[in-house]
TrEMBL record:
<protein>
    <recommendedName>
        <fullName>HMA domain-containing protein</fullName>
    </recommendedName>
</protein>
<feature type="transmembrane region" description="Helical">
    <location>
        <begin position="123"/>
        <end position="146"/>
    </location>
</feature>
<dbReference type="Pfam" id="PF00403">
    <property type="entry name" value="HMA"/>
</dbReference>
<feature type="transmembrane region" description="Helical">
    <location>
        <begin position="312"/>
        <end position="334"/>
    </location>
</feature>
<feature type="transmembrane region" description="Helical">
    <location>
        <begin position="279"/>
        <end position="300"/>
    </location>
</feature>
<keyword id="KW-0812">Transmembrane</keyword>
<dbReference type="InterPro" id="IPR006121">
    <property type="entry name" value="HMA_dom"/>
</dbReference>
<feature type="domain" description="HMA">
    <location>
        <begin position="4"/>
        <end position="73"/>
    </location>
</feature>
<dbReference type="GO" id="GO:0046872">
    <property type="term" value="F:metal ion binding"/>
</dbReference>
<keyword id="KW-1133">Transmembrane helix</keyword>
<feature type="transmembrane region" description="Helical">
    <location>
        <begin position="239"/>
        <end position="259"/>
    </location>
</feature>
<dbReference type="InterPro" id="IPR036163">
    <property type="entry name" value="HMA_dom_sf"/>
</dbReference>
<feature type="transmembrane region" description="Helical">
    <location>
        <begin position="192"/>
        <end position="213"/>
    </location>
</feature>
<dbReference type="InterPro" id="IPR039447">
    <property type="entry name" value="UreH-like_TM_dom"/>
</dbReference>
<feature type="transmembrane region" description="Helical">
    <location>
        <begin position="80"/>
        <end position="103"/>
    </location>
</feature>
<feature type="transmembrane region" description="Helical">
    <location>
        <begin position="167"/>
        <end position="186"/>
    </location>
</feature>
<dbReference type="Pfam" id="PF13386">
    <property type="entry name" value="DsbD_2"/>
</dbReference>
Amino acid sequence: MNNTTYVFHVNGMHCKACSLIIEETFKELPYITSAQVSLADHRVTVTGAFIDTPKKIAEDLTELVHKHGYTISAEKNTHVAGWVDFIYAIPISVILISAFLLLQKAGLTSLITGSNVSYGTAFIIGLIASVSSCLAIVGGLVLSLSANSAREGGTWRTQTLFHIGRIAGFFILGGFVGLLGNSLHLGLTANVVLGSVVALVMFILGVNLLDIFHFTKRLQLTMPARFSRYIMRGSKHDYYLAPALIGIGTFFLPCGFTQSMQLYALSTGNFAQGSLTMFFFALGTLPMLALLSFGSLNIAHKPWKGIFFKTAGIIVIALALLNFSNALATVGIIRPLFNF
């Protein structure tokens, strides 16, 4: 049977992690020889030995990825920005941001500390990441590990080893990233530039979470996906230490939030600060991912997911702007916006 190539439209993608998980899921089918996803165009090109109509193929592909919140269609659907979600998202995000700033004023937490991120901010960004890009790709790994563990008679061991490996790996590798920054001898100006770059990355991530403009997804920077594919495929096995090794490997997955924290860790130029930054970030992702591991939580199918993502996007944009303004204040370009 000859191979045929089809182009389908994808709904529900937010980041490069979404592209990767769709590609790897489709490639598992024996009759599909290749699958390539364009995040910017929200399209997937698949080649394989198909016998059904495009509409039926799209329905079959949707069944594979629907659990992650994606749908595949033969015809392009009109993008729905979900403006009504802002009616709820804006006041919720304003309340949460105000609460964060009040906690900082009271000395109970610290969101803004010089040109570098604080551990409290790293934890909050981890919480947000766990319901966006991390939930897309790391959540997919968790579900895959859980499914394979169940088939082979596994218990809670698989999921526990995964989360232990993830947190420990982020702590240790974050420290080495900090040491790398130290070897580069980054000065004040370089740290401010690096902090500004991270703020820009976070700003783009926040805009993408709002899901209003598709063109902004072209601006999102990610690491090469080759290594990420090895991690994805490794989740199909349930060797004793495989879950822990995969948890460590998530440090290198194409998650924009993870990479922004890695840049922060690099700017610290210190093993302890770098390791603690990544540790608190990973700790922030734990509650949501643990619920996904040991329960049946899947925000992708909740009726309020639009409000949730838009609230998260506004908070990420606010944190990006606050850190950018503070980086400028550090070198005296502007006056500090908040004197806490």
